[in-house]
Structures
1.
Amino acid sequence: MTLRTRLAIFVAVAVAIAIAGASYLSYTVARTQVRGEVDDALRDRGITLGPISDIQGRYGRGAGQGAAADPDDDFIRDDAIVQFLTPEGIIQLGRAAVVLPVADQDVAVLSGTTTSVLRDITVDDIHYRMLTRAVAPGIALQVARDLSEADAVLAGMRLRLLLFGGFGVALAAAAGWWVARRSMRPVAALTLAAEHVAETHELDAAIPVDRTDEIGRLATAFNDMLGALEEARASQRRLVADASHELRTPLTSLRTNVELLTRKGGVPVEERPALLADVSTELNELTHIVEELVDLSTLGREQEAPVSMDLADVVDRVVARSGRRGDVSIVADVEPTPLEGPPTAIARAVSNLVDNAVKWGAGGGTIEVTLQDRTLTVRDHGPGIDPDDIPHVFERFYRSPRARSMPGSGLGLSIVAAIVADLGGSVFAGAADGGGAAVGFTLPPQGTRAELS
């Protein structure tokens, strides 16, 4: 069953319940009102029948079962049946062809136990409403009125309520189906687009958005998802293409050296150590590139839980470790910087910045690391960054002309940029005052964004 059909059925059922409730209430009120008018008429008729002494004088007591009054008496009217109950029997007025039944409730009125009773009776398949009330000690009055006309009115009302109610439910179902069809049209388009993407793997199935309600937001989110998927696919393709290009050079060099080592006649003994050193260097370079490719491809999908930390402690540990590895002096000036995020990724970002500065600042003075106002800056005193290279330093595999003769994969700063972006921050790079380069990142204020998970 489709969603639009379920919505139409839901609307129809809701309207049916509302109509049924309203119809029941209307019918109950009308029935109560009609019955109330009949009951009031019976009470009024019982009161206007005159003093009981007139009845006793005219008809006497103990006239016997079924005794009738004079046909021309003023008591006789066509709108009701009137009779009196006495211990001796029933006194009927006029040409009454109907003898009203006497039940225990009526006997209770005659005996004085109850003053009056109203009840429905059926005589010769005709529905009556009957009042029995005491009019004097040992005498009770019974007045009955035919309810055939009132029952016919109420039956007609029931039929009309049923017909109009059924028509209203059918109309509501049709309107609900039509509204659901129009409302679900963007969802149908969304479904077709999703099926198209699943079948063809093409991500150019964006749907037009011309509304701002929940359906419009869903369509916008779907288009954004397609855009993100397309960007991820393009990024993956660029990564594969760049990796293939970067791996080709060391692989070619490695293959050449291996072929030299294994060619017939061998390699002169004095050249072998140099070739083996080249092979080792190329293997290390390949290993480094592969490791950074793995880090870059899995970044953001690792399951490392975020923890609360102080970025200053991370910087101090990285600076101490880097200082022990090389002959470059590294000084740090940091302030407490609370942060929540994956500790390994954050340490990797800081380490890559410091390693980049060590590579370019070797032999050129002290590396300065500062952490102020949630901004980490790593400065070296090397040759600096060419202005033309600044827009590209955080791109994957980008290496400036001066860097192509130096070790490295061109992925270190791109990994920094990816980690900082996941934390909601931004990276920067530029020439430092007095020479060298300043590279770093700025984190957003604490608590303004959920950190990388």
2.
Amino acid sequence: MLRKLLCVVGAGLLLVPAMAISAQADCAEQITLRVDDWSSGDRVEYMNQVLEAFMAENPCVTVVTEPNISDDANTRRLTQILTGTAPDLIATGESWIPLYQEAGAFLDLTPFIQGENGFDPAEIFYEGVFNQGFYRGVPYAIAKDYSTSAFYINNALFEAAGIPLPEDGWTWDDVLDIALELTVDANGNNANSPDFDPENIVQYGIDIIPDGWWRGFQSYLYSWGAHTISDDGTTTAGYLDSENAVAAWEFYRDLVNVYHVAPSATILGSIEGGRTQMFQDGQLAIGNTFHGPWWQDVFNETPNLSWSVAPLPAGPDGIRESAVMWMGWGINANTEHPDEAWALLRWLTTEPGQRVFALKALSADRAVSEEMQRVDDPYWGVFIAEADHLGQLDEQLNPYYGPCVFTPAGDLLTRVMSDGGEEIDIAAELTALSAEADACLAEAAEAGVAAVAEGS
């Protein structure tokens, strides 16, 4: 899609606290741009640096940031869009672009990209990351930053067992083989031993997603060739409950109940700190699976923990495909200053802003990543390489995927991976869930976006 639309791009925005940053100059008109801001912690200072630089270059523009970091931030944005009160640059996660656009949120970025102040996105961005800002073939938003996934590895446990650290190209069969070797009971028997006691495990080979986190599980499903909705976004039947999907769900559950190499969601929920704490304590060989680059500081500060990250494994048919976590901005369709909004969006999502933001996050700007030596870094490089395997997000195929599929499917995942989940007929549950999801999608489409906002 990126090269097909080489003159089609928008830019992602950034964050700042509730403040205005302006510059003094001789201006015929002082323009004010409002920016949706989700920054916190040291990211606030980063945003300030970027905006101050923009103001210095554009002294007739004042940028006002509007904090929106509450639990209901996404639905608050939807309400702002529907009521015409949204800022000039609207923040959005990749999953919310369809719903926001159905509400009339964004300008098509194509004219800006193709215009005098445009650029060739194929020369700037990682294609898989850039494509997440599209809806129905049109670019509406660009990422400020993004996150792919990896598996966190306890190096010491691998070394003690004489097992090489995983490399790109490993598979889910490899994951299981390694997890069997690294799951150990109180008597020192691993899960391959006939004397292994599954009721008395002191070290697990791998963890599972315990809380129904559907985005993480999507990466797993994609590697099994199991997307959950049709390409035209009209039905989940035959997708959510496909043979590949059922096989993937059953294999994942078997990690807990058949192979005993992973703790159940019930066990993980009973431990303060959950799987992260277990990994820090040396009770997990492969931990925080499908997490992004969020744990570097935490794990580096953990005493006596030698750790690394590994690429995601391929599925049974060699498929290497995963989902992305992404946050960026689009230009409000009702902005009074589209050209100035584009200038700011471009500043934030390309080299000027990305050089600052990339200090603590992944940048979709290839040149910035390469210049900061992230590509070859043993930590950041794994996550960057995963950008070459990003697939189409199912949420972007239907604006109502979130309430109709994402949430109920996550609830089912929690039940399946908890104690008693071994009794669940997965095929039957997925068939029922698919029927309910299709009915929900049809009902939501008829009710419209406003009904979603009211029901949130």
3.
Amino acid sequence: RQGDPGSSRFYLSLQDELMRRFGGQQVNDIMQRLKVDEAMPIEMGIVSRLVEQSQTRVEGANFDIRKHLLEYDDVLNTQRSAIYAQRDRIFTKEDLSEDVTEMLRTEVIQRVPKALEAEEGPWELLAWLDKVQPSLNVGRYIFPSYTLHLLLEQVQEQQSDPEGKSVDIVPLLKVAENSLKAEEEHQIRAVNALIDLYQDRLQSIKAERRDAVETFFEGLRDADETDTRTPRELNDELAALTHLPSLRLAPEQQRQFRSDPEEVMPLVIDQVDAALNSQVVTRLVGAVERRLGESLELNHAQVNAADWDQLADQIYTASLATLSKRRERLLGNGAEAKDGQIARDLENALSREKEPLTEKDRLAILQAVRAEVMKPGSAPGAAELQRALQAVRAALSKVEGSLAEEEKEELIDLLEAHLTQSKLQPDRSIQTVEDELAQIEARHRRDLLIRLLLMMPMCTR
């Protein structure tokens, strides 16, 4: 019974996990050398100490596991507390404008300095801003992203008739031209980086494969009479070792594996280098073409025969020619010429556009208001206001432009508010109507410019 005088004896097998992980094999080797009977209990001091040390190591490992788990739990608790604090703030605080503004301010302060120090300019910052606030279509209106807003301001400032109804596509083409130029500079830097990357990769692979070939021939030199592999088998083994299934040597060269390995090894290395050059060049050309989205139209036979410097020059020249052809196809002879694909697409889009109000529509609406507010003996009362609004509504029902029904109702509501405030004074009433019509046309023109910008992928990607 527990508490009675006596002693305890513990039995531990060499196949126990504790012994297998911490020294069981060592004890087993000792028993084998001493030829100890497996049935004899092992009670030597060295074994007891080994078991004690093993137990200590296991306890230490378990302690470290618990310690790390507690550390991870502390990290999770910190994150959990922060998230819960934000959640509680959302539930209890009515206005979160300051919190959101502070979060944005912190993020911007971190990103702007890094973006301005980047070699290629603040492109990553603009991409992040567009990701935070992409362009949104809300009903009939388009709310542009930050980058699109900058382009829109630039196009609006360069319009030949900023207050007119017509849209000049030359500023749009200049935006496209500048965008293509910036993209071409970025693409050329990317092509040069790819060339350097693949050159380093080629040198690394060549060094690795040459080591494999040298090790293979060293094994041939050290082979004895027990090595019965045929020349064909040696060739297949070498092809597998160099990861080149196309590696094939003539029968005479295969026989030299045994008779004169020093003679055939340079031939093998040359063939391996040529095959690797072909592989890397093909992959490099494919990577550049995927990057540019266009074919380089290179002669692969000439490219594979060239050394690396010539290859780099050929790919660089072909990339410039490809980008130049694309620019000529999209822009023709420049923004002013208007003879490229982009100019034709913009003109086709404009030809399908319909003005929200024609000049006839504007005159009809203004005449309706003028007829009511300037009627002899009219007083600024509710009846007169309703008659003026009905006259405008009747004129709006006959518009020939693309003014939507929702816009007509909005216009009626705005006019009612303004006409009530102006008390049907003729000059102010007519000016109010003219201002509202001008705002509608300006909004339609702005949305049209945004849609035209979105038609040009190089301006939005």
4.
Amino acid sequence: MSPAPPAPAAPEPLSVVGIGADGWDGLPAASRRALCAAEVLIGGARQLALLPAECTGERVPWPSPLRPAVPGLLAAYAGRRICVLASGDPMFYGIGRTLTEVLAEQAEGAPPDAPGGPSGEAPAPAAGHRLRILPHPSAVSYACARLGWPVEDTEVVTLVGRPAENLLRALYDGRRVLVLSAGAHTPAEVAALLRTHGFGPTRMRVLEQLGGARERTAEGVAADWDLPPGDALNVLALDCVRAPGTPHLSTVPGLPDAAYEHDGQLTKRHVRAATLAALAPAPGELLWDIGGGSGSIAVEWLRAHRSCRAVSVERDPVRAERIGRNARTLGVPGLRVVTGSAPAALEGLPVPDAVFIGGGLTAPGLLDACWAALPAGGRLVANTVTLESEALLAERHRRHGGELVRLAVSHAVPVGGFTGWRQAMPVTQWSAVKPPADSRSASSASSSAAPPASPGPSSQENRQP
């Protein structure tokens, strides 16, 4: 009987070392050992320049764009000890997250009989890295220490590789916000944004080179910010102050109608709040907003949590552009807008957790396509103001259950010298949760269940006038 082959050696861990503006002097012993032992050192040019000559590994600067290059770099240096440099804490808006996601994708994509798969053979270098994270204090920790702000009570917004409008949803009177800057230009860009959106009185402090020998702080007020650009490595601290007359925007659904640019195609405030309650957004979930109109449903879905995602489908190009403007103005520039007619425009979209139909209900096949695309537990909500679409919703209520309600809102208006009620058109709303027994492969349904779109139904059929 031949002896069993020796167990394969475990792959070298992929080390990720956080480093601050204090450079080598600020690193603990474990981080120094990992850097000295590395055969390949990957990082930004600024980070690599902080290392002394005793770190003899080959120095490889990150290419741009970074994320698509990660799998290729790991494969190119497979079998060698790799150490990746990160700013501060690698797992806080850092390269650590990217590496964990890439390695997980590679592991999932490995065939069962490939090295690194379930067969127990030695992992392939590209998919078999074990990640070892050696963090450094983050810029947020340093900034809060300098400012005397509790970290847990401080809102943090990163503008590194992200639109500046992401900051807008964090602006509330009296709030403390830390902004992770994209560069030396960020303070001036943020000051302009604050002035434009009614937060000109906000106190701004720029904290540069935190933890390093060249640490400094500059201060001013957004309304008259005129400081020249400083160091590119900076964090911006905001003590938010709303200017008199600036509208107060709530964190919950039901923003004032005046918060939106629209041509009348808008789900009105009270119906919108009820609609979002039925859609029930949760962190990380994806919404399809069909017949977007002004985009109000998708915008307020995204405002529910920063990890929520949404796709707004609107056939009118002018309205589609307007949806994008509303999303940026209200702090959710990540809203994806698809210009086209549903159901054809739904083809290829990622599987939704919830679907709202606010326009085009009578388009042939639309309701079937949306229901088929939902996974078990997915929610579908549809609103209408017309009898024709109401009949469709009543039939779906008989078929799938759920709730069928009529929402009627009246507003007090002057009647001569008195006050009376003016009623808006009532809205019929059907909402349902897809049961497990009714579920099928949503990934294929979203691309195959949508029949060709037909001309005809107007998005106006479902919106309040």
